[in-house]
Structure formats: structure tokens, C-alpha cells
Amino acid sequence: MDMNMRNKFAQQYANNYVETAASEATPHKLVEMLYDGLIKHLTLSKVFIEQKKYEQKSEHINKSLAILNSLRDGVDLEKGGEVAENLYGLYDYCYRKMIEVSAKNDTVIIDEVVEHIKALNEAWKAMPEEIKRSSKDQIERESA
Length: 144
Hints:
By secondary structure, the protein is mostly helical. It is built from seven helices and no strands.
């Protein structure tokens, strides 16, 4: 089996693993996966800007924007009150900053966005275990 075929199979395996993990994950774990993926794509965006590989930079910025959009869309402004509004505002700010990065190729801005997301990720991972294990149905029943 040639290297190209191996890479193709490895990528298919990785895609299937992520799909399976996402389909079986709790809401908490899904957000954690989004934060981890966002940090990865932000970091790769920075690397490709530094290497002047703008096609790859654009690919990872677009993935970062898609994740930020998903996070922003997942915020329940009706039930979440002030915390939800602040979180939505931070996601929106990071989204706008990444649009700026795309235009200016400014790695300092990426560093700022990464710091915001890392702080959120750390706080998210520090939640109590009973919240981390809650299903979507349990969360909806408790917030009703």
C-alpha cells in the first residue's frame, strides 16, 4: 500500500472517530471538543501566516470561523441571562477579530483570540462532574 493510500485511510479513520465521538458526547463534551478544535485551528492559522502559506492559513481561519459561529449559535440567550449575553459577545468579538486576521495576517490578534478561548476552555473543563455528565434532556428538564 502506497503512502497516499495510507494517508487517505488514516484521514477516513480520523473523520469516523470524530463523528463517533461527537454523536456519543454529552453537551458539555461537545463544547469542549469545539474549544479544543478551535485552539488547534487558531494555532495552525498562526503557523501558516508565519510560513507565508496563505492557502492553508485561509483553510484554518475558515474552520476557526465556523467553530466560532457554531459556539455563538449555541448560546441560549433566552435562558442564559447575563452570562449567555457575555459569552455570545465574546464569541462575536473573537469572530470579528478573526475576520481582521484574515485580512491583515496579524498573528498578534490570533494570540489574543487564543488566550480568550483557552480561558473559556479551562473554565469549561473545571465544571463539576455532575454537570459534565448531564445529557441534553437532563439539562433541559433542570432549566425548565
